[in-house]
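Work Package 3 (structural annotation) set out to generate three-dimensional models for the target panel prioritized at the project kickoff. During this period the team completed the workflow that converts sequence records into discrete structure tokens, so that structures can be stored uniformly alongside our sequence database. As a representative example, we reproduce one entry of 118 residues exactly as it appears in the project archive.
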Amino acid sequence: MPMFPLNDLTGANVRGRALAGAINYPFPLLVAAGVAHGRPWSLAAATGICVLILAGHLYHWWLPYLWRASAAQRELYQREYARTLKILPAEGHGVVPDVQHMVVGALSLIMLVTTLNA
């Protein structure tokens, strides 16, 4: 969903994003339904999903920001995220987490803590 300046979908491949959504959303929705219905397997699956999401977030945003980003990471960032809203200093960083991904990271951490306490 276009929400510039939080995201920049001007050059987005609509078909590719639709396919990614069709692949990425059904399983977490199934797990959420399992949690809502009290299925024991669902909390283990939810914890696994939360850990994977948080690990991916750290790998793709914070490690390149705090240390050196690879050429591929910098190229992807320039193509898809260079025009998005940021509040962190960009000087000397090839990749800077934008506001949208900072919010997603915080919500992912909250989701993991909540799942572990369930």
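The two ends are 31 Å apart (CA to CA).
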